[in-house]
Amino acid sequence: MSAANPPASQKSPLVPPPDATDPVRHPEAPAPGEPLGAHYDMCFGCGGGQPHGLHLAARAGEGVSVTAEFTVRTAHQGAPGLAHGGVLTSALDETLGSLSWLMHVIAVTGRLETDFLQPVPVDTLLHLEARATAVHGRKIYATATGRIGGPDGPVAVRADAVFIEVKVEHFIENGRQEEIRAAMDDPDQVRRARAFEVNP
Ligand SMILES: CCCCCCCC(=O)SCCNC(=O)CCNC(=O)[C@H](O)C(C)(C)COP(=O)(O)OP(=O)(O)OC[C@H]1O[C@@H](n2cnc3c(N)ncnc32)[C@H](O)[C@@H]1OP(=O)(O)O
């Protein structure tokens, strides 16, 4: 069996199948450069209501891409003075997750594989970029990088991911009822919809 044609059992779930198609930017997606804002105030990744959250701020990019910034804080340490790897993965996950807002789909992370290339000290501003690379059925393939020292600086972390498109019921049926009720009772229609990343 050649490396170019591995058996099904050896195919990576992170590599799109040959009949995957290009991701499509929704015509009503925010313009490149436009801030996406937090989708849910209590989101650990982007919400303002989580004191120790990442407070990640994302902007729409060209095509199906986003950029984001995240500053590593004291609360995000693993080793002394260094960012926790899981926190960095969360920042990549959140950036990748916001791609669905540009495609007008609701999707959740199915698989996420992170490469940690350089340690990231506390106080570092991490420059993130994510782009969708392919779509196959409900699967959205995407990749992301986190750079230090500037938007063109060296890549400290990178990830490949598969997101799976879901219906809003995914959240309503599985989330804790207290938060689901609060989100659904929000009188602000846009906030209500964005809690579940449903485009109004
Ligand atoms: C509101 C948005 C907030 C964004 C925040 C940032 C993103 C997140 O962190 S989301 C939270 C973390 N993720 C989750 O909690 C998801 C938990 N998992 C699940 O709910 C389910 O396993 C779910 C929905 C992913 C898939 O279940 P289900 O809908 O039954 O899918 P299923 O029918 O089995 O599979 C559909 C396709 O996806 C593929 N797939 C499913 N799971 C995976 C996976 N883990 N890895 C790769 N591919 C997968 C299947 O192989 C299948 O492919 P194909 O169509 O080619 O056969």
Write up what this structure looks like.
Residues 81-146 form the Thioesterase domain. The chain is built from five helices and six strands, in the order ββααββββααα. The protein has 200 residues and is of the alpha+beta class. Strands 1-2-4-5-6-3 form a six-stranded antiparallel sheet. Strand 4 and strand 5 form a beta hairpin. Bound molecules: octanoyl-coenzyme A. Octanoyl-coenzyme A (CO8) is lined by residues 13, 39, 93-94, 97, 108-111, 137-139, 162, 164, 166, 196-197. Octanoyl-coenzyme A is lined by residues 13, 39, 93-94, 97, 108-111, 137-139, 162, 164, 166, 196-197.
Number of strands: 6
**Shape-level CATH architecture:** Roll
Name the shape in a single word: globular
Class computed from helices, strands and strand pairing: alpha+beta
Number of domains: 1
Radius of gyration: 17 Å
CATH fold-level topology? Thiol Ester Dehydrase, Chain A
Give the distinct bound molecules: octanoyl-coenzyme A
Order of helices and strands: EEHHEEEEHHH
> Major sheet: size, sense and barrel closure?
6 strands, antiparallel
Q: Taking all residues together, what is the mean pLDDT?
A: 93
Please render the helix and strand layout as text.
Layout: E1 57-60, E2 65-71, H1 85-97, H2 99-103, E3 107-116, E4 125-136, E5 139-147, E6 155-165, H3 169-174, H4 177-184, H5 189-194
Antiparallel strand pairs: 1-2, 2-4, 3-6, 4-5, 5-6
The protein binds octanoyl-coenzyme A.
Octanoyl-coenzyme A (CO8) binds at residues 13, 39, 93-94, 97, 108-111, 137-139, 162, 164, 166, 196-197.
